[in-house]
Amino acid sequence: MGWLSRLSAVAALATTALAAEASTSSKSSTAAEPCAQIAKLVKAGAPSFSSQLAVACLQSTPFKSDLAVSFVDEVRKYLEWHSTTEILRNPPPGALSATVDLFGGLANIRDRASANLYKSQYDFDADLFHLLSFANDGHLVIVPCSLVFNFRSAVRLASLSSNGIEVPRLYTLGDGKLLAQGNKDVSPVTLINGVGAEAFTEQFSETIGLQDPDARYNYMMTNVPIARDGNEAPGGYSAFPTFPGMHDFNLTYANGTQQSIPLTADVSSRLGTDFTFQTGDELWDAACKPKPASSDDSSQKKRADSSSSAKEKPAPETYPKPIVKDPFNLIIGYLPDDKGLEDVAVLTVPTFETQDLASGIPTNEIANFALEAQDFVLKAVAAGKSKIIIDVTNNGGGVVASGFGLVSVFFPNMTIFSATRFRSTPGTQFLVETISRFPGSAADPDLAQSGYFVPGLVKPDQKSTFDSAEDFLGPFDVLGVPSTAIVAENNFALTNETLNPINIYGQGGILNGTTPPFAPENIVILTDGRCSSTCTIFVNHMIPYGVRVVTTGGRPQAGPMQGIGGVKGAQVLAFSDIAGAFVAAQTLVQNATDSKKPLFTDKEMSVFSPYIPLQLEDLPLRLTGGSVNFRNAFSPFDDQTPTQFVYQAADCRLFYTAEALIKPESLWVNVADSIWGDADCVFTSAPRKAIKSAGTKTDSSKAAATSAVSGSTDESDEVEQDDTEASAPKKKKTKAPAHKALGLLLAMAEGLRG
Ligand SMILES: *[C@@H]1O[C@H](CO)[C@@H](O)[C@H](O)[C@H]1NC(C)=O
Ligand SMILES: *[C@@H]1O[C@H](CO)[C@@H](O)[C@H](O)[C@H]1NC(C)=O
Ligand SMILES: *[C@@H]1O[C@H](CO)[C@@H](O)[C@H](O)[C@H]1NC(C)=O
Ligand SMILES: *[C@@H]1O[C@H](CO)[C@@H](O)[C@H](O)[C@H]1NC(C)=O
Ligand SMILES: *[C@@H]1O[C@H](CO)[C@@H](O)[C@H](O)[C@H]1NC(C)=O
Ligand SMILES: *[C@@H]1O[C@H](CO)[C@@H](O)[C@H](O)[C@H]1NC(C)=O
């Protein structure tokens, strides 16, 4: 239970690794420093090196107890912003992941650091990284300085059912493709490192940033080898940001054959420089030693990246010919002609990351994305398609406005319900009080729409506001979390319809639909459980109209599976966003003080001060990245339980077949057969009534809102809706919280996202 036993699991892993190292290094005590050996290999052009060498190099980094202790103290101030800390320690019944005590674990790490029990920077960093990953929240991530290698393996596994209903078995991807071609002469993988292969996989995926165990199982698999965005998707066995605890994967097949697959390592781009280090100390200086702000080239690098423009991507191989295709494959529409899909259009939406300056996507992509969706829907209807599958397999989220925009393509001009809370602790209170008290805030759009300016906030009705900052800040006890009152993430009336087209309240801009293009019972959302943040917002806004969710794969057992297995939090905040917000607030405080109208008394400041963190560049150890889940989302029927902690089974569950490995649309055929034909599901949930009218009259939005509330009595446990916002991209990162919701951890393991 809790952090303690998990900590010992981590410690056990570390100890195993150390023992393995001790035996190798005693043999070769005269050999060169491990980091120097890596530098030599890299210089000679080797693409990778042994994981043993990588671990030995990491473990030769120095550990500086005093720096580590003060680093933990500062990191804690950032983690104070994470929205579910108390709930993770004491989750409501039905939560599927283990409990974790984040602050208890942090105190434990601090104690060990203080007692100088860590042998290297890497051992300390790995503990921090793993502590946060136990929360299974893709928004809660820390990337400490020494995580400079990727560990990789050639293991590619697919979980395959003979017919989509029978419990699946594990095969290598190569064998799965042979099966798909009719070659029955292959054996499933029965053991990995001597443990049942399925159980090993389930346990091995325990700390992935997905809250649902079936979603995590799918993460390990390569059941969709070419992702919907066209990238190769090699599965979770292919890459790890920390040493996974074993230097090889030994596969045993049902026919008794054994195969040993070694782990390798390479230098991550996170290091940001060539690997030329002769010792662990040199590596530490380059990766972990704080840099003076002026010599910081990483921000320059980022700026350079953002000016480069992204290249158009080719259409995904093995898929049918696209009818509508986004240049970056953010959204692709198909009209397949397979038997069983005669009436069915398919829209794949692998991401909502429509705004990603670092990758050079143009700024009007948020609008393009919505327009492409509308364009496809019109073409599908014109081609006589009456049904649609929206495939959001492995969609990690992105820009919230794009999620709402897509909902509004299918249900134009409906109301959108947004209800969130964030933590109310001295750190967040300082920001809200500063911006709400500062006399100039109302006149400054960045401050007025920052989400911290109380007169500018609206309640979920999108009309009323709060009488005072105190009214908003409470704090209110919500499952033990000191929280703000319920608030809409954004005031939709302020949404810029040119930049962020959302077809509600008659302000869709380029989105001009007036009637739903498909009946709700003719819309199916397909997920593999790996649906996080903005993806969950999209799905949870479609469900109340009567749209059904089909989910695929998961652990090899019959029974229900959640369609949404990723974080349902409404907003992620990077540590850099938090740092920027504090700088902005402190500037206002100083401004008011200079004008002889101080915002706070000394007594008030003494409460806030301990919660104001050092800026990232002033941290005692360098930090590569970090983020928290800032806002919890709530359904219209329950303002106490964040949607994150509500179990939602999909309407229908299917397993993968081998055929889908080489012909992805065969999965769409199976989905259509199960929902609109007479094929079975592995598990079917009891049918739900729609709680929102998707009537064809254009004036139905008011009626929809009313029915959403009146439907609450008997549907509360099944139908829920999450929240959130849409806002114009803010130029000044300082004040405006990122209006993004996406799983960072998932993006971290290089190679998993092509
Ligand atoms: C056993 O099964 C594996 C995996 O399908 C296969 O590669 C191998 O050739 C088989 N060995 C024998 C002796 O049949
Ligand atoms: C894998 O098998 C090899 C021998 O074939 C053995 O040396 C190694 O320890 C095994 N690895 C694991 C993680 O079990
Ligand atoms: C919306 O954004 C566009 C593009 O930045 C800008 O030209 C326009 O003035 C904005 N509209 C409103 C109402 O602010
Ligand atoms: C959408 O709804 C708003 C009111 O909510 C109404 O003013 C507007 O005319 C509607 N637009 C369309 C296209 O139906
Ligand atoms: C909506 O806009 C599209 C172009 O974006 C246009 O082709 C279509 O005619 C418009 N529909 C209506 C009803 O105005
Ligand atoms: C304080 O901010 C206002 C605008 O909000 C600005 O006009 C003024 O110059 C600032 N004063 C100081 C002392 O920085």
UniProtKB/TrEMBL annotation:
<dbReference type="InterPro" id="IPR052766">
    <property type="entry name" value="S41A_metabolite_peptidase"/>
</dbReference>
<dbReference type="Pfam" id="PF03572">
    <property type="entry name" value="Peptidase_S41"/>
</dbReference>
<feature type="compositionally biased region" description="Acidic residues">
    <location>
        <begin position="714"/>
        <end position="725"/>
    </location>
</feature>
<protein>
    <recommendedName>
        <fullName>Tail specific protease domain-containing protein</fullName>
    </recommendedName>
</protein>
<feature type="domain" description="Tail specific protease">
    <location>
        <begin position="344"/>
        <end position="542"/>
    </location>
</feature>
<feature type="region of interest" description="Disordered">
    <location>
        <begin position="694"/>
        <end position="737"/>
    </location>
</feature>
<feature type="signal peptide">
    <location>
        <begin position="1"/>
        <end position="19"/>
    </location>
</feature>
<keyword id="KW-0732">Signal</keyword>
<dbReference type="Pfam" id="PF23658">
    <property type="entry name" value="PDZ_CPAF_rel"/>
</dbReference>
<dbReference type="InterPro" id="IPR056186">
    <property type="entry name" value="PDZ_CPAF-rel"/>
</dbReference>
<feature type="region of interest" description="Disordered">
    <location>
        <begin position="286"/>
        <end position="321"/>
    </location>
</feature>
<dbReference type="InterPro" id="IPR029045">
    <property type="entry name" value="ClpP/crotonase-like_dom_sf"/>
</dbReference>
<feature type="compositionally biased region" description="Basic and acidic residues">
    <location>
        <begin position="298"/>
        <end position="315"/>
    </location>
</feature>
<feature type="compositionally biased region" description="Low complexity">
    <location>
        <begin position="694"/>
        <end position="713"/>
    </location>
</feature>
<feature type="domain" description="CPAF-like PDZ">
    <location>
        <begin position="150"/>
        <end position="269"/>
    </location>
</feature>
<dbReference type="InterPro" id="IPR005151">
    <property type="entry name" value="Tail-specific_protease"/>
</dbReference>
